Amino acid sequence: MKTEKMYFEIISNIRDGVYFVDADRRLTFWNKAAEDITGYTAEEMIGKRCQDSRLQHIDAEGRSICALGCPLYAALDDGQQRRHDVFIRHKDGHRIPIRVDIIPMMEDDDTSGAIEIFTPNSPNIYEDDLIEKLSNSATRDRLTGLPNRRSIESYMEYRFSEMKRFDTKFCVIFMDIDNFRAFNNTYGHDLGDEVLITVAKSIIHTIRRSDLFGRWGGEEFIGIFAIKDDADAVLMAEKILR
Fold it and tell me: For FRET with 195, which of 9, 105, 155, 183 sits at 20 to 30 Å CA-CA?
């Protein structure tokens, strides 16, 4: 196999997302991992300029990277490598935390383009206090302050992506309050709301910072927890019950 073809095969099939841009920041290559991470195919991306690609890079404060000063443009300008932790928008709409490495490509002492290598970041960067900033609409339950259904679905998409790429395990625990409707009818909705708030506070203090616990709807809650083996899921459920 010729060296150039071998390199192309490696880049096309590695687990990190890789794309190339020319000096005009127009995408010329988009590998299979980039498709898997973002949901966009090579056919949808190649030929587009970076700023028109719909990935919508933003920082941890929810600010547009393009508006602040594009690191890809800066790398093309000064020929220096860069690394950033940012968020991109998946084709389905949810945000994905990624780590980006930008490497300028030099030809005859001039910058002819750049390579961007990106990989999903640690779940720890997907903090609860960032979710509101990264969404176009409110993503917390107004009563309990917990992540709402929209947040839970977005975070679950992210964990499935992590599981697929890195074989990391997680469990989903669904819970509700028994006979809650009868309680509401008997004692009133104000007291029912107090019960929901108390349950939420009690459980949120038992989980780790890297986990997520939110309100699914009504008296229903969902927790998403990182685990090492199946037995950990049972232990986590029993911990919540206590």
Answer: 155
Burial 43-81 (b: 16+ CB within 10 A, else e): ebbeebebbebebebbeeeeeebeeeebbbbebbeeeee
Q: What is the DSSP letter of 16?
A: S
Contact 76, 62 (CB under 8 A): no
CB 211 within 8 A of CB 223: yes
What's the pLDDT score for residue 131? Answer: 46
Query: What is the maximum span of the chain, computed from C-alpha positions, in angstroms?
Result: 80
User: Are 83 and 112 a contacting pair, CB within 8 Å?
Assistant: no
pTM score > 0.70 for this model?
no
The 10s digit of each residue's pLDDT in 12-65 is 888 899 999 998 889 999 999 999 999 999 999 999 887 777 777 877 666 677
Domains of the chain, start order: 3-121 (3.30.450.20), 125-241 (3.30.70.270)
pLDDT digits (tens, 9 = 90+) for 163-174: 887 788 999 999
Q: What pLDDT digit, counting tens, does each position of 57-109 carry? A: 877 666 677 656 788 888 888 888 988 888 888 887 777 888 899 998 888 77
Is residue 184 helix, strand or coil?
Answer: helix
